[in-house]
């Protein structure tokens, strides 16, 4: 039998989702992450997961992998020592940026640490004009001297970013050749390879982030690839990109910046597929893991794709799903701040030492400890008994915090959850209210190991009436890896006014991008019948600073005069939707042209089951006292085993639903129904 595997390595747990191609059945597994070497945890997860279904490495027909290695390296500033070679006069561009304050009126706001020290930034004489002509010829000897100096300084990676290289990359290509001659052992890349688009600061920042992550991802991929090879895996593994698609390990090595949202992106892909299967297209995803919470908005079943985002304060020009992240997870630490107030996060205890209740040496209580004390989470064990829990230790440390705050211990534990809920509600408002969407028009889908624990509380905070808890919420990112296609994005900036003659230039640009896409298809061995192409362009009015994406009306590299007219009309419509108005007189401009290339792969599918009726008593496995803020005390709650629930079953809160990868809390006043695909639909109120 053939098995498809999705493996998601997070800050606390490594999740494995196994899909049997023949029987259409899913199986899941979880193991603790190994932060010192994530590949160890992945290997353990794959090996143990295959053992649970009596399969071996030769039975694996696909392995997709999502990772937070790149994200964590940026957040924790644990990337490689990096040098920069740039155009004469632009040495300080990384620090000057756009001269915008992170918070306009906050005089104490800190800028993110510059990833390249000033002493490691070298200028070389060269200049390309905006039209691609050469004003100053590249001084090759200066490039050689810079490369030698960086080698002497001990850097591990070299970034190259020249002005207007997105129009004419000749100088960058030659500089890259020289650096590789002088310093072949360093990871090196140039901006035209990473982000061939305009806006020099964002392009340079993206190139530096890619270079900064290069050696880290090279080491990680080499270790993981070697371990999987030793295991006997016969297929080439894939890694997730921030855009929700997957690419080969080799391409991820070259462009690690495209994996900075590798982990959460496939959770959104899985949510999209489930929403489509159950007929609920408008969803806000709520993915709460051990370290952070990721939220995204799906309108009509689609998550918006953005071409630029900030990752921990660093601008990155790379296609990625519009996901917002906050430091609120099961491992977020609770403490009393200098003002005497209760704070939670963004610091996290991670997989090791983990929460206090793990009994691995941590003495600061976390969100997980609060749930254990309140007994919304099993106070004895997790992972179906594989992980022992010490409630007494968690209670002891939260009691100390309660004494510091002058509060009751149970109210303190509930206070930790309330603070975390408020933090997550702010994140949801960023991707909904602040962008013109009312959360009440959406269903909240709970993902991640901690998502179902907090989902109903969060929904109530946002006045949302419906929560969806998938069949395997704790491994949704791993599941998403079995539902996504191969994907790559190609772009080129050429600013031109939209008129009757522009279609000729557009056709030439798209033809060049198509050549790159065809090369990628060949590199990834995508059969002709499985190749998909989508063309689009970023447009704006002349004089505007921001663009809107508009699709080319037909998927062909030859753009007609009629295509241009349709795109201008589409831009006007998009402008009205985004900003509430559109100009009748200002001319429209094309700015950046894009091709989205995807290779279709066989995906997992969901099975619908027959309705057996509302009676869920057959799934009750016991009861537990749980502390709820509505009752200000403990209430005896029935415990349900998620594996025993059938289609059509009804459950009234208060109740607890347990499964290996997550725990769902139904507070008083809620009601859950098991829909045909065995997802829980929770109605609030």
TrEMBL record:
Record GO cellular component, one term: cytosol
Please give the coiled-coil regions recorded for this protein.
none
- Hydantoinase/oxoprolinase N-terminal domain spans which residues? 4-182
Q: Where is the Acetophenone carboxylase-like C-terminal domain?
A: 501-677
User: InterPro entries this protein is in?
Assistant: ACX-like_C, ATPase_NBD, Hydant_A_N, Hydantoinase_A, Oxoprolinase-like
Q: Which domain of life is it from?
A: Bacteria
Example GO BP: glutathione metabolic process
> Which GO terms of the molecular function aspect are on file?
5-oxoprolinase (ATP-hydrolyzing) activity
Where is each Hydantoinase A/oxoprolinase domain found? Answer: 203-489
Which Pfam families does this entry report, sorted A to Z?
Answer: Hydant_A_C, Hydant_A_N, Hydantoinase_A
Descriptive protein name: Methylhydantoinase
Native organism: Acetobacter aceti
Source organism phylogeny: Bacteria, Pseudomonadati, Pseudomonadota, Alphaproteobacteria, Acetobacterales
């Amino acid at each position: 039998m053939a098995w498809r595997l999705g493996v998601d390595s997070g800050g606390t747990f490594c999740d494995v989702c196994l899909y049997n191609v023949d029987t259409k059945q899913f199986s899941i597994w979880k193991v603790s992450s190994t932060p010192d070497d994530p590949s160890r945890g992945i290997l353990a997860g794959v090996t143990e997961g295959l053992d649970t279904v009596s399969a071996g490495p030769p039975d694996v027909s696909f392995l997709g992998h999502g990772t937070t290695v790149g994200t964590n390296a940026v957040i924790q500033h644990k990337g490689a020592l990096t040098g920069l070679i740039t155009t004469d006069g632009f040495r300080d561009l990384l620090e000057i940026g756009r001269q915008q304050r992170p918070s306009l009126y906050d005089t104490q706001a800190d800028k993110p640490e510059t990833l390249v020290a000033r002493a490691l930034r070298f200028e070389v004489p060269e200049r390309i004009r905006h039209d691609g002509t050469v004003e100053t010829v590249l001084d090759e000897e200066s490039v050689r001297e810079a490369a030698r100096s960086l080698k002497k300084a001990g850097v591990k990676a070299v970034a190259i970013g020249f002005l207007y290289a997105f129009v004419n990359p000749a100088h960058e290509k030659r500089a890259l050749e020289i650096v590789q001659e002088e310093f072949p052992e360093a990871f090196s890349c140039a901006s035209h390879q990473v982000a061939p688009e305009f806006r020099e600061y964002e392009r340079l920042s993206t190139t530096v982030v890619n270079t900064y992550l290069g050696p880290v991802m090279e080491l990680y991929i080499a270790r993981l690839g070697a371990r999987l090879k030793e295991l006997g895996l016969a297929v080439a593994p894939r890694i997730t990109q921030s855009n929700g698609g997957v690419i080969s390990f080799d391409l991820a090595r070259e462009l690690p910046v495209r994996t900075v949202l590798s982990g959460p992106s496939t959770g959104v892909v899985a949510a999209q597929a489930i929403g489509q299967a159950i007929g609920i297209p408008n969803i806000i995803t709520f993915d709460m893991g051990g370290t952070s919470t990721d939220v995204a908005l799906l309108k009509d079943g689609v998550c918006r794709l953005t071409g630029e985002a900030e990752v921990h304060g660093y601008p990155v020009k790379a296609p990625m799903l519009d996901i917002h992240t906050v430091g609120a997870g099961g491992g977020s630490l609770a403490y009393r701040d200098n003002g005497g107030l209760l704070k939670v996060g963004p610091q996290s205890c991670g997989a090791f030492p983990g929460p206090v209740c793990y009994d691995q040496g941590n003495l600061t209580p976390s969100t997980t400890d609060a749930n254990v004390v309140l007994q919304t989470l099993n106070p004895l064990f997790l992972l179906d008994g594989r992980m022992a829990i010490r409630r007494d230790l968690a209670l002891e440390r939260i009691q100390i915090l309660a004494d510091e705050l002058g509060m009751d211990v149970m109210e303190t534990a509930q206070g930790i959850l309330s603070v975390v809920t408020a933090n997550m509600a702010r994140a949801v408002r960023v991707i909904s209210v602040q962008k013109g969407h009312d959360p009440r028009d959406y269903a909240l889908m709970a993902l991640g190991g901690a998502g179902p624990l907090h989902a109903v509380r969060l929904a109530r905070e946002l006045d949302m009436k419906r929560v969806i808890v998938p069949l395997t919420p704790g491994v949704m990112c791993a599941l998403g890896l079995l539902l996504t296609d191969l994907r790559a994005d190609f772009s080129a900036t050429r600013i031109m006014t939209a008129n009757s003659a522009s279609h000729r230039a557009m056709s030439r640009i798209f033809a060049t991008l198509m050549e790159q896409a065809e090369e990628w298809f060949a590199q990834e061995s995508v059969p002709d019948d499985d190749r998909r192409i989508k063309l689009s362009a970023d447009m704006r009015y002349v004089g505007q600073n921001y663009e809107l994406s508009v699709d080319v009306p037909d998927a062909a590299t030859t753009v007609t005069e009629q295509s241009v007219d349709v795109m201008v009309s589409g831009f006007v419509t998009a402008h009205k939707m985004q900003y509430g108005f559109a100009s009748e007189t200002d001319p429209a401009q094309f700015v950046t042209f894009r091709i989205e290339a995807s290779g279709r792969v066989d995906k997992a599918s969901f099975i619908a089951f027959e309705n057996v009726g509302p009676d869920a008593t057959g799934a009750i496995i016991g009861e537990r006292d749980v502390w709820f803020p509505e009752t200000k005390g403990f209430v005896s709650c029935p415990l349900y085993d998620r594996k025993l629930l059938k289609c059509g079953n009804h459950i009234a809160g208060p109740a607890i639903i347990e499964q290996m990868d997550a725990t769902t809390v139904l507070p008083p006043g809620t009601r859950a129904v098991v829909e045909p695909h065995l997802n829980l639909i929770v109605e609030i109120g």
